[in-house]
Automatic annotation (TrEMBL):
Listed name of the protein: Cys-tRNA(Pro)/Cys-tRNA(Cys) deacylase
Species name: Peptostreptococcus russellii
EC number(s) given by UniProt: 4.2.-.-
GO terms under biological process: translation
Lineage of source species: Bacteria, Bacillati, Bacillota, Clostridia, Peptostreptococcales
Pfam families per record: tRNA_edit
InterPro entries per the UniProt record, alphabetical: Prolyl-tRNA_editing_YbaK/EbsC, YbaK/aa-tRNA-synt-asso_dom_sf, YbaK/aa-tRNA-synth-assoc-dom
SUPFAM superfamilies recorded: YbaK/ProRS associated domain
Family stated for the protein in its record: Belongs to the prolyl-tRNA editing family. YbaK/EbsC subfamily.
Domain YbaK/aminoacyl-tRNA synthetase-associated: residue ranges: 38-149
Keyword terms of this UniProt record: Aminoacyl-tRNA synthetase, Ligase, Lyase, Protein biosynthesis
Gene Ontology MF, one: aminoacyl-tRNA deacylase activity
């Protein structure tokens, strides 16, 4: 378990649920908040570092999708996974209002509200997955099954 000074909401939840994780931190450049840059900084293969995307369906419900940082979300597959006819990405300006997190620091763990969450099925084949810890410059690495548990997610086919 990590014992550093910075404790994000996601880290507190992982500790409360007794889920082991490794904390990674990296220098933040406000112009480069993308996941590929984060993966390089922490020395991880981008195939094992996942980004958190938030969408809204036609029903006005929000859905969270967690996919590898170098990949794109297939919106038709996302809609199918969530049971919607169509989903669209939320506006960047709405991220904090909806999730409690900011762009580049949005974690699938510990959002303001529990939204239906889907992790791309590619995570099943990797030993550990790294996602945002809920603050720019911080990531948590844990097993995919522990991420499923902590984010109350399920696997889905989500990629292009």
């Amino acid at each position: 378990m990590s014992k550093k000074k910075v404790k994000t909401n996601a880290m507190r939840i992982l500790e409360l649920e007794k889920i082991e994780y490794i904390e990674h931190s990296y220098p933040v450049d406000k112009d480069h908040v993308d996941g590929i840059t984060a993966a390089k900084h922490i020395g991880k293969d981008p195939k094992t570092v996942y980004k958190t995307l938030v969408t809204q369906g036609q029903s006005k419900e929000y859905y969270v999708f967690v996919i590898p940082v170098a990949e794109n979300l297939n919106m038709k597959k996302a809609a199918k996974a969530s049971g919607e006819k169509k989903v669209e990405m939320i506006h960047v300006k709405d991220i904090n209002k909806i999730t409690g997190y900011i762009r580049g620091g949005c974690s699938p763990i510990g959002m303001k509200k529990q939204y239906s969450t889907y992790i791309d099925k590619s995570a099943k084949s990797i030993e550990s997955i790294t996602v945002s810890a809920g603050k720019l410059g911080y990531q948590v690495e844990l097993s995919p099954s522990d991420l499923i548990k902590a984010s109350k997610a399920e696997y889905a086919d989500l990629l292009m």
